[in-house]
Write a sequence for this structure.
DNA sequence: CAGTGGTCTAGACCACCTA
DNA sequence: AGGTGGTCTAGACCACTGC
């Protein structure tokens, strides 16, 4: 492996990727000690501080662990590190091995309710774009989503084809709105007549009801969405961690 | 603020705590630009590299954000950083402002099913302790829990009073089993006759069904639990983060 | 252009572990 | 005692931003 110090890619990053590859490929095995920081720095022809940055990031990412005075070691393959990934329906379904589909039932600019105005931190004259979609997995209806997005963040959104393109893709790529995190509430409910008919289930069938408020990096709210999942077709998975207050 | 370079507490850490205090106290306000790294380094009488470490950690913790070429800024008060805290029912209810209660419907040592044996990674002769409890919030029944715990991890558990003591407290304090993380699946279902009678709701009422597998630090499974929450009385909250596959 | 954060160096001393 | 990671320095050059 050659480090290219003319490359715009930082040296620490090139080294990090090289070490990560050696871990993933099995060249370094779980609980192996990797060479000392000094040796690695010499091997890559860089300073120890730079090498240390590569290793530190791999430690933070869970690939390595350090023991003071002993060395740096390869971690055991870790539990999936995603707590609960913030993904759109398309990505979620694709990952589960289904073919996603969408039918736009409604898309228009509307005046926000007071609740919406407060949740999305809207100014007086701001409107929102309301998008109601029925979503499919392998052509079977699975979920209804009512999404509300401030118009000023994506003025042309109303003309997008959201049956083909993922909403999150459009927000990220066209409007450069990088979604970062979300607060989500979930509860069990039952289908009323309307929901039941749209989803093709019996009235009174169990539904997983979700409210989600999505934020950009700087805690700017960007989307509020209400979701009804068919209880017989959807399981939500999440990893819980012991609370560590930083 | 004085930096003590004789202290065993590293300089970067002392600076980090001082800056954090200035943010929390409001001395630096959200979206304020803090002084440049060079100025701060001079102010604290340290090198820029050391100062940078303090700032980097505050960025990672969500207190600050950097903009290349512009400066370093204070974040808006962040969303609660717990993704989803791993807590028992008692702690959960207390935090929500309810008075928790419990009635043990069943507690005994049983042979594990093949599914349980696999999930809890049990050896041939291991048994499990099965605990069925009805849980109350303000004396109203809210949830039924079936918990399964390997007997060898807590041999005397069967004699504990789990109507008064929190199961997680007993595991952590008496058996020194420090719970670390859990994988949880959630879906919507409806109450059958048995569940409905026990929870005091109508048959066909919505229930939030949860399966949880809890682990110790070293990925040793310690508890499997099935939970049925009343859909009309319980909302699950979780924070989602953009999936960053490292 | 000056000011900012992003990266990098070639050393240094310390604390911890094993022997 | 020798090797390891933990911390720290005093510089340096670069890329991005705003004037």
């Amino acid at each position: 492996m050659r480090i290219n110090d003319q490359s715009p890619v930082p040296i620490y990053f090139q080294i990090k990727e090289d070490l990560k590859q050696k871990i993933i490929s099995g060249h370094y095995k779980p609980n192996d000690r990797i060479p000392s920081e000094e040796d690695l720095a010499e091997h890559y022809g860089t300073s120890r501080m730079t090498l240390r940055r590569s290793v530190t990031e791999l430690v933070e990412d869970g690939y390595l662990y350090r023991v003071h005075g002993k060395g740096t070691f390869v971690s055991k393959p870790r539990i999936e590190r995603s707590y609960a990934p913030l993904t759109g329906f398309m990505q979620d379904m694709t990952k589960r091995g289904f073919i996603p589909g969408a039918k736009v039932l409604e898309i228009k600019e509307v005046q926000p309710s007071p609740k919406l105005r407060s949740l999305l931190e809207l100014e007086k004259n701001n409107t929102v774009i309301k998008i109601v979609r029925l979503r499919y997995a392998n052509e079977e209806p699975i979920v209804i989503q009512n999404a509300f997005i401030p118009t000023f963040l994506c003025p042309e959104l109303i003309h997008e084809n959201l049956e083909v393109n993922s909403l999150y893709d459009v927000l990220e790529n066209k409007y450069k709105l990088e979604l970062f995190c979300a607060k989500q509430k979930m509860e069990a409910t039952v289908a009323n007549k309307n929901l039941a008919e749209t989803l093709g289930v019996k009235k009174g069938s169990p539904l997983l009801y979700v409210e989600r408020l999505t934020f950009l990096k700087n805690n700017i709210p960007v989307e509020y969405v209400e979701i009804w999942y068919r209880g017989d077709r959807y399981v939500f998975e999440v990893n819980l961690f012991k609370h560590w207050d930083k």
